[in-house]
Every structure is written in structure tokens, then in C-alpha cells.
Amino acid sequence: MKHSFKVDNEKLLVELDEDEKFEFGNKEILTQRFGDLTETKYWFDKGFSITKSSRFYDAEKLYSATQKAIKNIIYNLDPGLNLSEFSLENYHTFVSEELHSSVLKKTRRLFPENLDLDVHKILEEFSNYFGTNLTFLNPITGKQQWMIARINRAGSLDYNTAHKDVYEVFDKYNDIPRMVNVWIPLSGVNKLNSLPIVPKSHLLSEHLIKRTLAGSTMNGVPYSVASIKNWDGSATLSRVELNKDDVLIFSSHLIHGLAVNKSEDITRISFEFRLYEKS
Ligand SMILES: [Fe+2]
Q1: Mean pLDDT to the nearest integer, 214-234
Q2: For a pLDDT cut of 90, what percent of the chain falls above it?
Q3: Where are the domains of the chain?
Q4: Cα 65 from chain centroid?
Q5: How much distance in Å is there from the Cα of 51 to the middle of ligand 1?
């Protein structure tokens, strides 16, 4: 079934799976039931903050480290390719559809040690910012949470559903850890192109949110996250306005997704991770 969202007043039609059940949840606000790591911040009511990245990490170093990591991945998959002119921005001109799928298998889950960067220092800075010790380890699943380089090629369908990150663990364990999302723009990010979010959606009761369970299909592609169809009678998201030296920090209870790359000639790459409060 075709479903229509709006991203900054622009219509976005996606194909949702006919067989998946979209249902409203219980009359409860999950941030109230489980708490929210971001509730101590002044921006908690809107659910997100755009702030200068320099207090957390060196944006240029992170860019070079990610470029090096992705270039190495491509080289290892196809050593014959001439990558001397490779950059994150022109990624789409170097990879075929097949090579891109192979790259994604590696970049969806990047461990900190894959990057030539002091990731533990970044962790420490975020811990200071939130005034509590943070970790990549999900305390409920016991799994080390990976960092994800999201690659959205120019003019592609490389984007996922409207979702909340907390649903994956909630649907499986009926529990939600205190966690936060960090979204870092690396290449090709501008107001027309950045991550769409729904401000304040982390404060909505579940009985107003129509969604599948975690593990959903959109445009024929399976995703691990739940797919949300509408919330409080709306299906409108807004893109955040981010500069290269900004970082987006948002509640893991916030609805986000459908990050279509509208650029015709630049690959958008963002780097994202979830941090958990140490229990
Ligand atoms: Fe997400």
C-alpha cells in the first residue's frame, strides 16, 4: 500500500507492506514510564538539540577517519578500483549497485576500533555533557552497540522508515534503557537534505501513534526498526538545519527517519550512534 508522508511540506510516497499490521499502542507515554536520558537538558521539551561539535570531537578528524575507513572497505572489496580521487561526497560515482550492497554490510556496523580516532574520548565528552557515565553497551540486550555510517547515495532510495529507536528493545523486552541518539553530518548535509524529525514526538502517548512492531518493510526493503505510519493524526516531519560543524543530539524516543537524499550529485554520509547510561 502506498502511504504519503510530508517532509517540510513536500509529499513523500512510500510503499508499506500490505501484510504488516499498523496498530495504536497503549495509553502511556514511554518517556514517563522508563525515563529519558535527555530529561535533564534544557532542550528536553522539543526533544533535540543542534550544538557545535567541537566540544565532543574534531569534525575534520572524524571526516578523514570515516573517509579512510570507507575507502579501505571499498579497496578490500575491489582492489582493482582507482580510488585516488575518492571522497565521501563522490562515493556514488565509484561504486556499482552490487559493490554498494557489499560496502553497506561493513559500514552499517562499524566498531570504534575500525576508525582511526579516539572514540573513547568522544564517549567521555558526551558523558560530561549528560553528567553521567555513558557506554556503547546496551544494558538490556547486553550487546555492544555499533556505530553506523549511513550512506545515502545521490538520487537513491537509501533511507529508512519513520521510527523511534526505542521500539526495537521495547517490543522485545518490554523495557527501555536510558539512551540517547547522536547524528553527525559528514558529507552532503544541508537543510534540504538532513535528517527529518518530529519535534516533541517523544512526549506523545502511544495510543496516538500507529505503527508496526520492530522489523518492518518499506519500498520492499526490510528494516530492523518499527515503521510508524502517523502520530496524533499527522504524518509530517521537518528536516533539521545542520552545519558541518554541528551535531544533532536527540532523545531516542523521538520520531525520525525518511531521510531521502535530495541531492543529484552528492552522496550524503552521516555518522550515528546511540549511547546508553551505565547501569
Ligand atoms: Fe534511528
Answers
A1: 82
A2: 59
A3: 2-55+135-277
A4: 19
A5: 19
Report whether pLDDT(111) > 80: no
- Cα–ligand 1 centroid distance for 159 (angstroms): 11
pTM: 0.91
Collapse the DSSP code of 61 into the 3-class scheme (helix H, G, I; strand E, B; otherwise coil) and give the result: helix
Residue range 2-55+135-277, CATH number: 2.60.120
Sole residue written with cell 580516532 = 117
Spacing, Cα 254 to ligand 1 middle (Å): 9
Spacing, Cα 255 to ligand 1 middle (Å): 8
* Per-chain residues with Cβ under 5 A from ion ligand 1: 165
Task: Say how many Å lie between the CA of residue 174 and the centre of ligand 1.
Answer: 19
For residue 69, give the nearest of 148, 133, 126 by alpha carbon.
Answer: 148
Cα–Cα–Cα angle for 235, 28, 224, nearest 5°? 55
What is the band of 41 on the pLDDT scale with cuts at 50, 70, 90? very high
